[in-house]
């Protein structure tokens, strides 16, 4: 008899195949956080952040599994009491029969992974990783891609803004608005530490999140690529659609991609 309903373990197997855990950084915390692998699952919620808003969404949609990019318990903990923010989330998920699975830096480095999804949203043809795990390899952090045709930097910044979900801080650019942009490096999430790699790659522009003042200014002064800054959540949100397709391909399961903005910045003067 053919089984028509998936277990949590079936979805995990599909995600592990797409985002192998061995690609995760040593300091990372990926995999099943809470929940029973043998529990049946008919609905799954995919999101960037496992926070109160997305747990609410899982409850509202009847999801029995949350697939999140960011880990809930990244640093070591000695208890998950309900008197702590994260502990209360764990208890709420358990009481609601919701499992939580996280794919973080393994999803960043996988082929395809987080930066492939970002590149695709921007209309880039991916050529190679920005920081490959090994020379000539296809896994690693960030991606280098190219547009079908060059366009002015000002237009490219508007392209990025149109492609990603709206946030209060928005999208900002640093560079000559008339500079032709064809080759582009992207890094979903905090890509500040890959500024030098983007400059060394000789790309025309670099799109990432969490850029700092001094490193960004120094790269621009040195003739590096034009820079496009976006929020952390917005840069990684395209991955949710990619991960949703991985889950759907596992079998008979309904997948909901969260559109709730979990960016912490909610006011702008």
Care to give the gist of this entry?
It comes from Saccharomonospora amisosensis. By secondary structure, the protein is an alpha/beta fold.
Report on the structure:
- The protein has ten helices and 13 strands.
- It has helices at 8-18, 52-61, 85-95, 105-109, 114-121, 153-163, 195-201, 213-221, 232-236, 238-248; strands at residues 6-7, 31-34, 40-41, 43-47, 65-68, 99-102, 125-132, 140-152, 172-174, 180-190, 205-209, 226-230, 254-257.
- Strand 7 (125-132) and strand 8 (140-152) form a beta hairpin.
- It is globular and about 55 Å long.
- The mean pLDDT is 96.
- It folds into two domains: 6-107 and 237-257, Udp-n-acetylmuramoylalanyl-d-glutamate--2,6- Diaminopimelate Ligase, Chain: A, domain 1 (3-Layer(aba) Sandwich), CATH 3.40.1390; 110-233, NIF3 (NGG1p interacting factor 3)-like (Udp-n-acetylmuramoylalanyl-d-glutamate--2,6- Diaminopimelate Ligase, Chain: A, domain 1, 3-Layer(aba) Sandwich), CATH 3.40.1390.30.
- Helix 5 crosses helix 10.
- A six-stranded mixed beta sheet has the order 7-8-10-11-12-9.
- The longest helix has 11 residues, at 8-18.
- With 269 residues, it is α/β, with parallel strands linked by helices.
- One of its GO terms (molecular function) is metal ion binding.
- Keywords: Metal-binding.
- Pfam families: DUF34_NIF3 (PF01784).
- A divalent metal cation binds at residues 69-70, 108, 232, 236.
- InterPro entries: DUF34/NIF3, DUF34/NIF3_sf.
């Amino acid at each position: 008899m053919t089984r028509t309903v998936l277990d949590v373990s079936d979805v995990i197997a599909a995600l592990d195949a797409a985002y192998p855990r061995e690609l995760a950084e040593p300091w990372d915390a990926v995999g099943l956080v809470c929940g029973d692998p043998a529990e049946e699952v008919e609905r799954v919620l995919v999101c960037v952040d496992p926070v109160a808003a997305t747990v609410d969404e899982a409850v509202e949609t009847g999801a029995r599994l949350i697939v999140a990019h960011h880990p809930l318990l990244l640093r070591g903990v000695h208890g998950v009491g309900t008197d702590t923010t994260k502990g209360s989330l764990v208890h709420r998920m358990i009481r609601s029969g919701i499992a939580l699975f996280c794919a973080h830096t393994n999803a960043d480095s996988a082929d395809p992974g987080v930066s492939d999804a970002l590149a695709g949203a921007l209309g880039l043809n991916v050529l190679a990783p920005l920081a490959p795990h090994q020379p000539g390899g296809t896994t690693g952090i960030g991606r280098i891609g190219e547009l079908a045709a060059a366009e002015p930097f000002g237009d490219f910044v508007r392209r990025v803004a149109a492609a990603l979900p709206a946030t209060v801080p928005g999208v900002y650019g640093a560079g000559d608005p008339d500079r032709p942009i064809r080759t582009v490096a992207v890094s979903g999430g905090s890509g500040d530490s890959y500024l030098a790699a983007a400059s060394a790659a000789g790309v025309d522009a670099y799109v990432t999140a969490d850029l700092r003042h001094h490193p960004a200014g120094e790269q621009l002064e040195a003739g590096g690529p034009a820079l496009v800054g976006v929020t952390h959540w917005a840069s990684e949100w395209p991955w949710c659609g990619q991960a949703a397709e991985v889950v759907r391909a596992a079998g008979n399961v309904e997948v909901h991609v969260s559109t709730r903005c979990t960016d912490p910045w909610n006011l702008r003067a």
